[in-house]
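Why do we care about 3D structure at all? Because function follows from shape, and shape follows, mostly, from sequence. That is the central idea of this module. The next example makes it concrete: a single protein chain, its amino acid sequence, and then its structure expressed as tokens.
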Amino acid sequence: MCSTTITKLLKLSLHPHLFLIQNCTNMTQLMKFHAHFITNGLSNNTLFLSSILSFTALSPNGNLTYAQLVFNQINSPNIFMFNTMIRGYAYSTFNNNHPSKAMPFYVKMLQYGFLPNNYTFPFVIKALCRTKDYIFGEALHCSIIKFGYILDLHIANSLLHMYATFGVFSNEVLKVFDEMPERDVVSWNVIIDDLSKNGCFNELLDAFNEMCLYGVEPNSVTLLVLVSSCLKIGDFGLGKLIHLYIIKRGIEMSENLGNGLIDMYAKFGDMESAEKLFDGMQMKTVFSWTSLLDGFIQKGELERACSIFNKMPKDTTAWNVMLSGYSEAGDMNSAETIFRAMPDRDLVSWNTMIVGYSQNKKYLKSLEMLTEMLRFGLEPDRIALVGLFSVCGYAGVLRIGEAIQSFVEKLNIKEEEVEVALLDMYSKCGDPEKALRVFHPILRKSVLAWTNMIVGLAMNGLANEALMFFHQMRDEGINPNEITFLGVLCACSYAGFVQKGKWLFNAMSKVHGITPRFEHYGCMVDLLGRAGLLKEAEMFIQDMPEKADAGIWGVLLGACRMHGEVQMGEKIAKIVTQMDPYHSGRYILLSNIYAAENRWLDAEKVRKKMKTSGIRKTPGFSLVEMKGEMHQFIVGNR
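And the structure:
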């Protein structure tokens, strides 16, 4: 169409230019039309300018910067134009523009004398939700009341959502909700969802029942929140009742609700029901497949999981689930194969490998994975750093740990979990002074930080200091947990503080309401055993509320070895080997007891029994740092 024809059409009617703009597919076309309209004296038409703004501010192919330039040239913008710009910025990305730029347009609109309408407020609220501007949000709430829009259901729902997004579920949210003359399913969904996020599950169920009493029919969003809440509180029975409710009420099974139910059944281990739901789905998403995959992995059915993995469409999450499955099963060879086959890897992939090798005591491989990760230009995050400090602690490679600490300081990472992992590393590497240097600057010391410091001091033989920290922790109002008591009981054991240890053990349940676990009983047996109170230790085991396991009896066997108690050692060894016949350490302890008393024939008999039973001692190994590289040496290597 020639230029004169376009001009004539535009002069005859306002519609053709709307047609041209509405059919633009990119900014290049729009700018050509815009230039043509300007040169033909058509740039001041309100409808024309509104259309230009709509495309540039709202279209996925538009340009908000260009929209801003156009808006700035308008002498008398109307409320539609203001709303268009507010809406454009409210939904804009954080990269090139920012939702916060919507608020100045709202203020400017008021300055021009325009009253906001029922379109204005939802757009401004959207911007506030994305910027978390609580102060402006409260001011806007007052304006909504002032201009009489609080009775508008859509705006009231937007307000509810805004306060919920701010994370201030309290009187403000309930006040808005209670003052609403009309509530629909969206209103109730906001309340129910926020109760779920804040862990108020009893109140959530009350709200759901009240919603039904008011005759508001729950939808798939409502029920998805309920299903997710059942997972959070671990109530499988309630989850099944909700599923039954969905079936009986004939509620439409949306894609998200179907996926949520599959995920629920899979996480509770009911894979038969999960598969039945999965097979009945018309549209199976990657999430549906991944939920099923994760369910079989959590049940330890790796072959079944592998079969599903080979059939399904794969995203990075699915690959990571499979990677995690092999890692948790201790099959790091298969995990490595999966890792190498991944088309794309994210931080979760690298973290899984680093932590997986660490948990499976393959510390050298864990450190190699870190080196490779850095070569790819990736920086370890909190999860990886915690895993790496754990590796350095167990492997005793202090120099590498210090290098990672420098990296953490360079990035100014101040997360407590990372700091605690760092002090734990120094403790395990035998440097409690550096652990204390990490501990003291922590601003808000939680029970985790205190406990790790107490345990670290105890394992380095600083029993008095560990107990001093325990009392200081109590003075600062921090309640000890189960692990804290393991630390102080170990400290008492190393220092021979028998009476103090007994008092602390009794205080666990009587003062702090903590039920002792087998580990605590083991500490007490070790405490009594080191002090030579072997008979008392045996009686202590026999008086336990639950039958002692081989580990606790093994501690007493070690004490018999320490004090040369052959007769008791023989008796305890018989009990332990019956309970755990393939643990090499128990046989070696008994053999050493005989050897210490020069009973070489008896010692040899024990060794022969180990050999004929196929029981082998696990070889020890050391990691040695040489010229910046790690080398693993196994006992017996030359």
